[in-house]
Amino acid sequence: MQTSSDRHEYPAHWEADVVLRDGGTARIRPITVDDAERLVSFYEQVSDESKYYRFFAPYPRLSAKDVRRFTHHDFVDRVGLAATVGGEFIATVRFDRIDADGRPASSPADEAEVAFLVQDAHQGRGVASALLEHIAAVARERDIRRFAAEVLPANNKMIKVFTDAGYTQKRSFEDGVVRLEFDLEPTDRSLAVQRAREQRAEARSVQRLLAPGSVAVVGAGRTPGGVGRSVLDNLRAAGFTGRLYAVNTALKEKELDGVPAHRSIRDIAEPVDLAVVAVPAEYVPEVVTECGEHGVQGLVVVSAGYAESGPEGRERQRELVRHARTYGMRIIGPNAFGVINTSPEVRLNASLAPQMPRPGRIGLFAQSGAIGIALLSRLHRRGGGVTGVTGVSTFISSGNRADVSGNDVLQYWYDDPDTDVALMYLESIGNPRKFTRLARRTAAAKPLVVVQGARHGGAAPQGHAVRATRLPHTTVSALLRQAGVIRVDTITELVDAGLLLARQPLPRGPRVAILGNSESLGLLTYDACLAEGLRPLPPRDLTTAASAEDFHRALAEALADDGCDSVIVTAIPAVGETSAADAALAEALRSSAAAAPAKPVLVVHVELGGLAEALSAAASTAPQAAETGPGAAPGARFHPADRSPATVSADAASDSRLIPAYPAAERAVRALAEAVKYAQWRQDAGEPGKVPEYEDIDEKGAARLIDDLLAHGEGLTLGGEETGALLGRYGIDVHRSLPAPTPDEAVAAARSIGYPVALKTTAPHLRHRADLGGVRLDLADEEQLRRAYTELTELFGSPTVLRPVVQGMAPRGVDTVVRAVIDPAAGAVLSFGLAGAASELLGDTAHRLIPVTDRDATSLVRSIRTAPLLFGWRGSAPVDTAALEELMLRVSRLVDDHPEVVAVSLEPVVVAPTGLSVLGATVRLARAPLRDDLGPRTLPVV
Questions:
Q1: Cα 219 to Cα 227, 231, 247, 891, distances in angstroms
Q2: What is the pLDDT of residues 434-490, one digit of tens each?
Q3: What is the distance between the alpha carbons of residues 392 and 377, in angstroms, rounded to a whole number?
Q4: Which residues pair with 909 in a beta bridge?
Q5: How far apart are the C-alpha atoms of 808 and 759, rounded to whole Å?
Q6: Using CA atoms, how far apart are residues 97 and 74, in angstroms rounded to an integer?
Q7: Euclidean distance between the first and final Cα of the chain, in Å?
Q8: 606 and 571 Cβ atoms separated by less than 8 Å
Q9: How many CB atoms lie within 10 A of CB 176?
Q10: DSSP H or E segment with residue 366
Q11: DSSP 8-state code for residue 14
Q12: Alpha-carbon dihedral sign for residues 726, 729, 730, 735
């Protein structure tokens, strides 16, 4: 058990699990007095060369004085961190605060000397880089702003750790030693380096789970039908290319249907990369220990009985993750459906899916096993829904996602050459801030389509640990769209959009040509396009007598038209039409589309199973009845690797122009509309805008004021004077108002401000509710002011209740509201809308993630439904939207620069034809979180 040391309590929040460069995990924690034996053991395993690099002299062993020094820390001026695997040290780092002369010092000295030591067996895994991130965060927390390190010139690895970190640094050479000094203030480069390392490490950790060289199924029984045996059979049927083992304590046989069998994973002589755990929950800890001691890299836990079963199971789940991470293993699950990788080099079906999906370019992630089955089924079958089927690259069903989550999978898909489109079914988002960041980067490279379940249930499904959010689902959805996520509402829409995006180019705009052999179906498609915000051209009716050649000619003409960006073909069956006619039409459409590959083509068919199958067959992506190989299990399909190279090449060429077919016009149009919006987002993302710099912003002055205010307590809602002072540091002027607890004081306030004035209440139930009569405007003199004061008190109660104030009149304009809030899950969010009950009732508010760029501010103003009121609606004067955008950018800068500012509300902001007036403002402060998504990389706490 960890204990406190000399001066400070043990800082438990410094503990973290991290993913290393090779995909394994390690635990980083403070070193304490209890670690003496671990430190000595660790040091004995370090080579003489590494010791020499650390101490600049031969140093075979640590003295008792050394051990005391390296284990006794005050966690302020002397701090040591260790990276551990299996409870044992694999690396250490420490800093000692020093003064300008390099001597030991205490605060306010803001420099420290830092030194590392990494066990030779673990060098090259990125351990030192991870430790540097964490020790730098600790130092900043302890008001240390600069590190100094002395390194021997031959110690190139350690020099590279420092120079590659991205901090602003200075290097000198003196007395045969390289001295490095670097500021710890994060820079754009240091953050980019950290994010790139995070991506590579987390992607590698998922890749190890999806492409193992060997798999052991723990819990595979003799009798077919059990969970473990089903997974084993599915792995065999898929033709897994690596080594496969069956493990069960009850097995006495040496083989199980040709698969080597063992009673314990310890009995396997060769390394095991992945273990699928399918034993009752009470036996899982023993299995995890055996796997960890055998060097297994990752686990897929299909066993149930964890957090989904209640509090006791939740604690069992936490212990499972802690136990696995102790050995550097990552977990998919528990309660998982499994994983699939269709790559010919792997052919992994470590799941409960009885059929291996056909290889393709779509990546699937589902937290629910049932939904995972539905997704695989819809993409697999030839008819009964969306046809023109394409295949799957990888599939992950995470179950309770106690460890590996959608964020990790996004990191893997981001640069996976086998995945062109990512489809995700999420029941909860454990870290929306990170998910949004990763989604934005992924969406810039390939489409990401998401459907979120449990949107209106008010709580995450059992088994899912998520951060509480105060934002409504509509807001979270809008923020995801801002990040480039294609948000859909149903599984059907998820597959519809995925099939279009997987095999058709992105449309260049919203103009849609419609052609077909049914005037009615064409008109339905036209109306659906208008409803989705597309710009359809008049439908072209080819009549029911149209032949395949007529369709070919019409489609070619539409694709050649510069006035259209995409084409929807509608088709109904002719009386007595044969399958040969279906095949002819499918080939006509495919060949015409192939001649113009820059524009997407979709087909709407009505009861045309033959056409749908023909379209699919033309692209060679649907399962074919004859495609079964020798020895294949029932339902298993022949893998493309078993075909001749020429056939594979031909299939790949035709597969690239797969034409998706939809059984209803609205489904095709909705998928196309999502593709149009995504294409526009991709175009806009190429020019993301910038966060402006304003010379009159006093960031340091604001920081000092915030520190002074927080010295008086936590969770402060600032008073009017403090609010004005803080906002003023960022160039935001709040219209002056004075309290008026009596009529005489109201008159005195008006004289101070100058007539005309407004008299308004600030009581919570009347605040910002001019429609209730709590505001009197344009009071020109004392008589009018006293009369208004009397009216208000007679209508609404005593001045003590009303809290009236007097404020100078602002120029007339449009009343708006600008707010910013730090949500514990989503992060910093800027919101905008018009003031008033109508906008609030209709939810007409737009949102952007902070920091907001100039392009974000421009789009934010225009994205609410009532935006025309700002631009001269029905003859009114347009208002100064440029001033409004600048105000939003200043608020965004305030919140981004100072995480202690947890809420800002400016209401109302009256935007006039020239300039604007902030008539009301509130600011709330709280201590900044010690760690957030901008801190050192770390796995979620369990």
A1: 8, 10, 6, 57
A2: 888 899 999 999 999 999 875 555 455 555 555 556 667 777 778 888 889 999 999
A3: 11
A4: 816, 918
A5: 9
A6: 11
A7: 18
A8: yes
A9: 8
A10: strand 359-366
A11: G
A12: positive
Nearest to 508 by CA among 564, 561, 560: 564
Task: Note whether 420 and 389 are within 8 A (CB).
Answer: no
Secondary structure percentages of the chain, helix, strand, coil, to 5: 40, 20, 40
Query: What's the pLDDT at 630?
Result: 31
CA gap 458, 720 in Å, rounded: 35
Q: pTM to 2 decimals?
A: 0.85
Provide DSSP, 445-460. Answer: TS-EEEEESSSSSSSP
| Polymer length of the chain | 942
Whether 418 and 361 have beta carbons less than 8 Å apart is answered as: yes
3-state DSSP of 729-773: CCCCCECCEEECCCHHHHHHHHHHHCCCEEEECCCCCCCCCHHHC
- For residue 528, which of 555, 564, 492, 568 has the smallest C-alpha distance? 568
Residue 679: C-alpha distances to residues 475, 509, 814, 926 (Å): 22, 8, 34, 40
How many whole angstroms separate alpha carbon 318 and alpha carbon 783?
70
Distance CA 347, CA 636 (A): 12
**Torsion angles phi and psi, residue 708, rounded to 5:** -65, -40
Lowest mean pLDDT among 64-68, 338-342, 580-584: 580-584
pLDDT attached to residue 578:
58
Q: Rounded to whole angstroms, what are the CA distances from 727 to 692, 711, 799, 901?
A: 17, 19, 28, 11
Helix (H) or strand (E) holding 566, with range, is strand 566-571
Which of the four pLDDT bands, split at 50, 70 and 90, describes residue 796? confident
Rounded Cα distance, 758 and 778, in Å = 6
Q: Which residue in this structure is represented by tokens 């120079």?
A: 163
Beta strands of 120-258 (E only): which ranges?
A: 146-151, 169-174, 177-183, 214-218, 243-247, 255-256
CA 721 → CA 418, 478, 714, 726, 727, distances in Å?
59, 35, 18, 9, 10
Q: Identify which has the larger pLDDT, 98 or 823.
A: 98
User: What does the pLDDT read at residue 911?
Assistant: 96
Q: In what order do the strands lie in the sheet containing 330-332? A: 255-256, 259-262, 243-247, 214-218, 274-277, 298-301, 330-332
3-state secondary structure of 63: coil
According to DSSP, residue 267 is labeled G
Cα gap 168→30, rounded to integer Å: 26
Contacts of 9 (CB under 8 A, 6+ apart): 75
Residue with tokens 């109302």: 908
Q: Please name every residue paired with 27 in a beta bridge, in sequence order, or none if there are none.
A: 17, 84
CA distance 368 to 366: 5
Measured between alpha carbons, how far is 491 from 497 in angstroms, rounded to an integer?
10
Peptide bond before 539: cis, by omega within 30 degrees of 0? no
DSSP 929: P
Query: Regarding beta strands 901-911 and 814-823, do their DSSP bridges make them parallel or antiparallel, or are they unpaired?
Result: antiparallel
CA distance 346 to 358: 13
pLDDT digits (tens, 9 = 90+) for 626-649: 333 333 333 333 232 332 222 222
* Nearest Cα to Cα of residue 763 among 802, 816, 705: 802
The conformation of residue 542, written as its DSSP 8-state character, comes to -
Q: Contact 350/219 with Cβ under 8 angstroms?
A: no
User: Do residues 521 and 665 lie in contact, with contact meaning Cβ atoms separated by under 8 Å?
Assistant: yes
